């Protein structure tokens, strides 16, 4: 495990021209398979597993889920038994590389009809899953829970200098909520990977509320969080040639891989905002590389 994850300055003419400094926190380098916010979200869930005397971890995900891939790798490494409830009973463990690797890492994959999968957050369904699978610690899809947020908050404790802005990609908002809870004055810019992701602002507030982390001045705290929902490139897991060209050029310039689902969209948004002159001269900006490179397997020629 490479922790704390390194922070790199991104050398770019564009940033020089605007007199700003842009850094990237390489959470993608934490571990080859358990990288980015997946490690952050799993860390305290594994601790809970150890302290709670559970027999197995059970979690949920789609066919290409970064969370399933990371959970399978981490449970193999920590010798914990795991079950993955996978959306879609048309799939099997050789349907793609994510599922193949999760299976090889010892995760029991249960391919579940979509109607049943839709119950994944229901308490009565969790009871049913416990009846079927015994004393399991149930981790929600994407690691969206209190312990997940707690791990994401640790990203902030690894920063050695004050930043004016932190950029993070958003799917469920768990990573953003964890980071926001730990920031003092720094502004957090969340880039929604989903179309119509405006609801994420409320979701982040609800996550903070549930964790007991909302500050007394809720409005002030939420004003610190800027959600951008116009960089989704047609929707979740969708992409355009413009986005892929950006990811390729970024890789050629910086030798850092981004994925087309989360981090590519975030970095595209950051560059776009710089070009639009949205940051004052002297601004210090940090982008969190939340990992997810295994998701680029669907575009084989992305980095050649
Ligand atoms: C690589 C990557 N980045 C960002 C996110 C979004 O994180 P969150 O769901 O916490 O908003 C995800 C999904 O969990 C992800 O896999």
Q: Could you name the key traits of this structure?
A:
alpha/beta; Rossmann fold; 40% helix; 6-stranded mixed sheet; 4-stranded parallel sheet; 304 residues; binds pyridoxal-5'-phosphate; globular
- In the predicted model, the low-confidence regions spanning at least 5 consecutive residues are none
CATH class of the largest domain: Alpha Beta
Helix-strand pattern: EHEHEHEHEHHEHEHEHHEHHE
What is the residue-mean pLDDT, rounded to a whole number?
A: 96
The number of strands is: 10
Strand content of the residues, in percent? 15-25%
Ions, cofactors and other ligands present here are:
pyridoxal-5'-phosphate
Terminal Cα separation, in Å? 27 Å
Shape: globular
Q: Would you give the CATH topology of the largest domain?
A: Rossmann fold
Structural class comes to: alpha/beta
Please give the order of strands in the largest beta sheet. 1-2-10-7-8-9
**CATH-scheme architecture of the largest domain:** 3-Layer(aba) Sandwich
Q: For this entry, what is the oligomeric state of its chains?
A: single chain
Helix content: 40-55%
């Amino acid at each position: 495990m490479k922790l704390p994850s390194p922070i790199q300055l991104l050398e770019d003419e564009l940033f020089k021209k605007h007199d700003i400094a842009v850094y990237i926190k390489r959470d993608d380098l934490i571990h080859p398979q358990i990288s980015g916010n997946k490690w952050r979200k799993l860390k305290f869930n594994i601790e809970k597993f150890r302290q709670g005397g559970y027999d197995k971890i059970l979690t949920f995900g789609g066919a290409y889920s970064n969370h399933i891939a990371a959970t399978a790798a981490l449970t193999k490494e920590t010798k914990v038994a795991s079950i993955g409830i996978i959306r879609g009973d048309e799939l099997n463990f050789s349907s793609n590389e994510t599922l193949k690797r999760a299976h090889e890492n010892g995760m029991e994959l249960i391919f579940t009809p979509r109607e049943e999968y839709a119950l994944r957050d229901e308490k009565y369904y969790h009871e049913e899953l416990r009846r079927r699978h015994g004393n399991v610690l149930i981790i929600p899809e994407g690691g969206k829970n209190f312990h997940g947020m707690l791990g994401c908050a640790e990203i902030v404790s690894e920063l050695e200098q004050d930043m004016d802005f932190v950029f993070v990609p958003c799917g469920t908002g768990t990573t953003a909520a964890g980071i926001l809870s730990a920031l003092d004055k720094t502004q957090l810019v969340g880039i929604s990977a989903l179309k119509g992701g405006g609801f994420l602002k409320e979701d982040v507030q609800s996550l903070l509320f549930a964790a007991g982390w909302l500050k007394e001045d809720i409005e002030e705290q939420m004003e610190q969080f800027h959600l951008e929902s116009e960089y989704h490139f047609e929707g979740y897991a969708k992409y355009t040639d413009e986005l892929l060209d950006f990811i390729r050029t970024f890789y050629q310039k910086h030798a850092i891989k981004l994925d087309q689902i989360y981090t590519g969209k975030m970095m595209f948004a950051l560059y776009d905002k710089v070009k639009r002159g949205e940051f004052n001269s002297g601004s210090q900006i940090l982008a969190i590389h939340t990992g997810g490179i295994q998701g680029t397997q669907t575009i084989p020629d992305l980095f050649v």
